[in-house]
Amino acid sequence: GPAAFFEDPRATVLQAALDQVGALGWTDAALAAGARAAGFPGLANGMFPAGPVELAHHVMDEAAEHMQREVTKMTGGYGMELDGFQVAEVAVLARLDRLARVRSRWPEAMALGLRPAHAGATADRLARLADEVCHLAGDKSADFSWYTRRAAVASVCVASELHMIVDSSEDLADTKAFVKRRISELKTLDKAPSLVSDFQLGVTSVLGALGTAVVSLAPKGPGLPDPGLLAAGLQAVLQNLAAAAPAPPMGGSFGGPAAAAAEESSIAGEGPVFDGAPEEDPLAKKVDTTAARKQMKDT
């Protein structure tokens, strides 16, 4: 019909190519097969200059849109009273539900998205995703917690993808339980003073999940993301968030990836990188973290 006539042919081809991913992986062959199926034979190369990673990014975008719809459905018009953390859990699980359709091939998509040529676009998507989850959960902070919450959510999203890849339980029950535990940890962290150690915890959690995935999948040998690339990818996400945050987190007073990202973004003098990032700087005054660090050592 007329509506179909105005549809973006790229989206149509990507959707058709998704049906080929199971057999062909994230490849030019899958894109070419999608183009043929959608009635655009021979045009795949010109349509997708970045190559097969555009297919992986399409899945990420589509999963994020599905997440928004599911949360809106659950919180709008059904009289359900959910707190922000419950909404965050619903959001993360709704996104995973979408990714699960290409679960057997997702390790390769993650590895592809983290290659140096594509890592920037992948990190940008993850930073926006974390911002969207916090926005859906009703977060209106304009201080240091704006950053901590988003960094923590980004790490939960990545760690949950790794768990999904190796989950052999029925209906991804183990992954759902994992997400529930991580969100409940965020609730605890949210009540404590926000420190960069929270991010280091997030990165450790992701790399721990990757370690589990590597061990579980070793005999099958799919293309899991390299731990170094994954750590660099998370650092890029934190850098995007730091550039958009209302204040450079702790002014780089810790040596972790979040501090390095904050330091780099403040040197570059970047402003917010995506819509909705607060521009005020309520944390302009120097924060004394000595007591907090002593407390961490004592606990």
TrEMBL record:
GO terms for biological process: ubiquinone biosynthetic process. Keywords: Lipid-binding, Mitochondrion, Transit peptide, Ubiquinone biosynthesis. Residues 254-299 are annotated as: Disordered. Residues 256-272 have a biased composition (Low complexity). GO terms for cellular component: mitochondrial inner membrane. The keyword Zinc does not apply. One of its GO terms (molecular function) is lipid binding. Pathway: Cofactor biosynthesis; ubiquinone biosynthesis. It is found in: Mitochondrion. InterPro entries: COQ9_C (IPR013718), Ubiq_biosynth_COQ9 (IPR012762). Gene3D superfamilies: Tetracycline Repressor, domain 2. Transmembrane segments: none annotated. Residues 122-189 form the COQ9 C-terminal domain. Belongs to the COQ9 family. Membrane-associated protein that warps the membrane surface to access and bind aromatic isoprenes with high specificity, including ubiquinone (CoQ) isoprene intermediates and presents them directly to Coq7, therefore facilitating the Coq7-mediated hydroxylase step. Participates in the biosynthesis of coenzyme Q, also named ubiquinone, an essential lipid-soluble electron transporter for aerobic cellular respiration. PANTHER family: UBIQUINONE BIOSYNTHESIS PROTEIN COQ9, MITOCHONDRIAL. This is Ubiquinone biosynthesis protein. It comes from Heterosigma akashiwo.
